[in-house]
Specification:
This protein is α+β, with helices and mostly antiparallel strands. 27% of the residues lie in helices and 25% in strands. It has a 5-stranded mixed β-sheet, with helices on one face. A 3-stranded antiparallel β-sheet has the order 4-3-7. A two-stranded antiparallel sheet has the order 1-2.
């Protein structure tokens, strides 16, 4: 009777051990959940997440284009600059249009261009080796009125720009901040932004800046 009892206990322990092993294996094989950042418009383009593959290419960026197992071709593509027209020139395929394209999308476009007439199933990678300098001007009632640089790979909000310019002074009228922006057609747009309301919302819906924007923080009328 005792032997039968021990055999039952051993069988239960063995079964539990197997179930635990299966559970751990399933947990280990489960892919981690990846969360991304919200898309925001800045610098003439939009930025999706912090990944370099999702950076939207800008004029004057310098790229390195690499095609697997094509060393002679790669030597000609170690420093490819994006033109003011958002294009690049590559050997064999000539001009490639990249306006509004991410690094990841550029890889696919270049791959298709080479694959069309010259290479068989090319494996292409694109790396930004030098980011174009992008800046805005922050003037008026801020601690250090000056030019503020965009961080590489990232956008810049109006709240961040004011902070980088030393923050606002006690006399600042944050309800009537002026944002001046030059459009692609040459026209100038002036917007009045209630920065005070943005701050009260914790920065949500903060206005994203573009290259060469001018922010003016006026003095409060007492």
């Amino acid at each position: 009777m005792k032997a039968y009892h021990y055999r039952r206990i051993f069988a239960v322990i063995l079964t539990l051990g197997c179930l635990a092993a299966v559970g751990f294996a399933a947990e280990g094989s489960r892919r981690p959940e990846i969360s991304g950042r919200e898309t925001s418009d800045a610098g003439g383009g939009r930025f999706v997440s912090g990944s370099a593959a999702d950076y939207i290419l800008q004029p004057m960026d310098v790229l390195k284009v690499f095609v697997f197992q094509h060393d002679d071709l790669n030597k000609q593509m170690e420093a490819v600059q994006v033109s003011p027209e958002h294009t690049i020139s590559l050997p064999l395929v000539q001009t490639i249009k990249l306006k509004g394209k991410t690094t990841r999308q550029a890889e696919q476009i270049i791959r298709d261009a080479f694959d069309r007439d010259y290479l068989v199933n090319p494996q292409v990678s694109v790396i930004v080796v030098k980011y174009a300098e992008r800046s805005v001007n922050v003037l008026g009632q801020v601690g250090k009125p000056d030019r503020v640089l965009f961080p590489p790979e990232k956008g810049l909000t109006i709240l961040e720009a004011i902070t980088l310019a030393g923050g606002h002074t006690r006399l600042a009228d944050l309800k009537k901040v002026k944002l001046t922006r030059k459009q692609e057609n040459g026209d100038t747009e002036v917007m009045e932004i209630d920065v005070d309301a943005l701050m009260k919302r914790g920065g949500r819906d903060a206005v994203q800046l573009q290259k060469d924007d001018v922010i003016f923080v006026p003095e409060r009328i007492l």
